[in-house]
Amino acid sequence: MANENSQAKVALSRCIKDLCETNREIALVTLCTTDGFPISCFSVNELSNQADKFAAMSSTLSALSDSSASQMQQGQCEITIVEATSGNMLFVKTDYLSQPCVLTVVAQSKMTLAEARYKTKRLASEISTISE
Predict the structure, then answer these.
(1) Which pLDDT score is estimated for 90?
(2) What distance, in Å, lies between the first and last C-alpha atoms of the chain?
(3) 49-11-129-26 Cα dihedral, nearest 10 degrees
(4) How far apart are CA 39 and CA 89, in angstroms?
């Protein structure tokens, strides 16, 4: 993966920051490897100091969703959504620097699920175009 000061890391941070600044309902955005290592974490509160925990959880949920979809003969899992009392958590696979990753977005209940899904998928697409 890219080092901390690379153009790719700057582009990634800019994409995530832009999404969060224009959507105050988003409480957390993380990107991790599919094997559970954090790449980037942006949060509006103290959650960002738990990047390792979120990376492990995100990669595990993504793998479980993939396995479930496969076992039930539904093809590949595109997005996993967890609806909670205070909002929604969305987990979607993407690529970052040609490596498979999991993007996690946590949106407060003020943001509709459809809007959160659209913006999460759009961010995943933007991230997949980043190169060094």
Answers:
(1) 97
(2) 10
(3) 40
(4) 18
Comparing CA positions, the residue from 2, 74, 67, 64 lying closest to residue 31 is: 2
Whether 91 contacts 103, CB under 8 Å: yes
C-alpha to C-alpha distance for 26 and 17, rounded to whole angstroms: 11
CA distance 3 to 12: 12
Cα–Cα distance between 101 and 12 in angstroms, integer? 13
What amino acid is encoded at 104 in this protein?
T
Quote the pTM value. 0.90
Buried b (16+ CB within 10 A) or exposed e, 9-36: bebbeebbeebbeebebbbbbbbbbeeb
Q: Is 115 exposed, middle or buried (0-12, 13-18, 19+ CB in 10 A)?
A: middle
pLDDT tens profile 33-64: 999 999 999 987 766 677 889 999 999 999 99
